[in-house]
Amino acid sequence: MKFLHLLSTEASQSITLHCLSDPPYGTTDGFSSTGPSHRENTRLRFRGWNKQIFEKDTLLEPHVLQDECKIQDGSWHQSRFLFHTQDSRQLPIVDIQDLPTGPLNSQQHIEISPVCFL
């Protein structure tokens, strides 16, 4: 990995969070009839190779390409994030923190693309 970091001037990677949940029945803490409020209450954070944190409203904010996981209609949805940096030592993403939680019957899986070193 060190060799790739030394030879590269930029890097990019994408992460897709796939989520499935049934529509909520009634109102519970953290959820409403229009969907979860986890995006406002929890910040999804990504830790890079050099231990720097990518999160919303920071210099290392990931580009949000799609954000549909707040929709709870019983179908699969996805939220897609793109990481592009001119410091190649920041990638790959090695940890995802504060993943949103849904109802007990919800499901999630994460799809992590390979890093493209340029």
Annotation field: number of helices: 2
Q: What is the CATH class name? A: Mainly Beta
- Residue ranges: pLDDT <50 for 5 or more in a row? 22-41
Sequence of secondary-structure elements: HEEEHEEEEEEE
Proportion of β residues? 35-45%
CATH topology-level name: Jelly Rolls
Q: Termini distance?
A: 14 Å
Helical proportion, percent range: under 10%
Shape: elongated
Radius of gyration from the CA trace? 16 Å
Q: What is the tally of beta strands?
A: 10
Biggest sheet, open or closed, and with what strands and sense? 5 strands, antiparallel
**Class of secondary structure makeup:** mainly beta
Instruction: Please identify, by name, the CATH architecture.
Output: Sandwich
The residue-averaged pLDDT reads 82
Number of domains: 1
What does this structure look like?
This protein has 118 residues and is mainly beta. The chain has one domain: Sandwich (Jelly Rolls). Helices cover 8% and strands 41% of the residues. The protein is built from 2 helices and 10 strands; from the N terminus they run H-E-E-E-H-E-E-E-E-E-E-E. Strands 1, 6, 7, 9 and 10 form a 5-stranded antiparallel beta sheet that branches. A hairpin with an 8-residue loop joins strand 6 and strand 7.
